[in-house]
């Protein structure tokens, strides 16, 4: 099953019909309509089967399936600006909501009152929080912000988390680490499966990876390509990132222990002359022809990549990084959801298949 927002205030849930062998034959079975404005974040908890959504209407809903319909439970976020992203914690007893109000809401369920309540991390960001990511220990929370910084917070909630998960002598909302290596908006952040490494992407066309377990400095991969909007760890040594180039890129550790770009996972099927051009040059050529007669303009060529517009989301499918086959999906502004299957990722790129 698949939950998507078609650029509206609704969430559509699809499934593959019984007997179908092609993912293109999706059937819409539910429409969730409680939000008043654009839905900006969706996360589906695999164990509890609960869906959490957030929206520009400053609200969030937790959706529970009763066997026939999805029933919403309103979460009061107490935000003054739009909610931008949402993620379940690893134990699925909490979720975090980023916002344009320079704050993060950590939400948990109160059994006594039968509702979800929020606890705010305030006055720690200077601008919009674009993305949030939970550490596997369920207590640490990483955020990506348009103030050019990535931060790690203590998100331990007393009475919800186990005492063994407490983070030293720090309190809820304390900044445990602030990373200033980016020179642009930080778009997305993700933890490795073990929680030892953290990666984030910035609008200056850079990828940043820090090995917190080893205590090494931040490694920055500067790219010639357009900025990356999303990042996803596949294993401790491999990750994928994608953005305005409409293709996912595979990154990994080389023999010297440095992170580098390994492969473009969707090489454009075009001539060498076309590959040497850029989106800007194509747009400029079109602009130059604005005053020319209509019959002298060449028709637009079909895109050479699977995605036809910016990739905004990467999602792991199944346990990532623990077998020789890794699957993930990408979705973008072209309205497409694409599933990718990589074989041999952990061994390197010599035998990689797509």
UniProtKB/TrEMBL annotation:
Keywords, ordered alphabetically: Actin-binding, Cytoplasm, Cytoskeleton, Repeat, WD repeat
Listed name of the protein: Arp2/3 complex 41 kDa subunit
Swiss-Prot/TrEMBL WD repeat ranges: 32-66, 122-154
GO molecular function: actin filament binding
Subcellular location: Cytoplasm, Cytoskeleton
Cellular component, GO, one term: Arp2/3 protein complex
Listed Pfam families: WD40
Stated family: Belongs to the WD repeat ARPC1 family.
Highest taxon of source: Eukaryota
């Amino acid at each position: 099953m698949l939950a998507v927002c078609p650029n509206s205030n609704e969430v559509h849930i699809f499934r593959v019909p019984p007997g179908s062998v092609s993912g293109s034959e999706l059937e819409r079975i539910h429409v969730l309509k409680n939000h008043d404005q654009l839905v900006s974040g969706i996360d589906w908890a695999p164990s509890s089967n609960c869906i959490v959504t957030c929206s520009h209407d400053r609200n969030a809903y937790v959706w529970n399936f009763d066997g026939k319909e999805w029933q919403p439970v309103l979460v009061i976020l107490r935000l003054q600006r739009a909610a931008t992203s949402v993620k379940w914690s690893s134990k699925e007893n909490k979720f975090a909501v980023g916002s344009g109000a320079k704050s993060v809401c950590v939400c948990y369920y109160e059994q006594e009152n039968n509702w979800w309540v929020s606890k705010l991390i305030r006055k720690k960001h200077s601008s919009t929080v674009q993305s949030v990511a939970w550490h596997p220990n369920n207590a640490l929370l990483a955020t990506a912000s348009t103030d050019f910084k990535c931060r790690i917070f203590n998100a331990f909630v007393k009475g919800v988390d186990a005492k063994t998960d407490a983070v030293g002598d720090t309190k809820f909302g304390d900044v445990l680490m602030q990373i200033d290596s980016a020179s642009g908006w930080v778009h997305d952040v993700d933890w490795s499966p073990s929680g030892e490494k953290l990666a984030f992407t910035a609008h200056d066309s850079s990828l940043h990876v820090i090995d917190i377990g080893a205590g090494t400095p931040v490694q920055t991969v500067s790219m010639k390509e357009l900025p990356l909007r999303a990042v996803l760890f596949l294993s401790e040594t491999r990750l994928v990132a994608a953005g305005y180039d409409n293709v996912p890129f595979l990154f990994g550790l080389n023999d010297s222990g440095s992170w580098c770009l390994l492969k473009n996972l969707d090489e454009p099927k075009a001539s060498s002359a076309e590959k040497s051009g850029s989106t800007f040059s194509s747009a400029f050529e079109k602009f130059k022809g604005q005053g020319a007669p209509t019959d002298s303009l060449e028709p637009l060529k079909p895109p050479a990549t699977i995605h036809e517009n910016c990739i905004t989301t990467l999602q792991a499918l199944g346990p990532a990084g623990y077998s020789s086959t890794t699957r993930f999906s990408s979705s973008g502004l072209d309205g497409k959801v694409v599933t990718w299957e990589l074989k041999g990722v952990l061994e390197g790129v010599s035998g990689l298949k797509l």
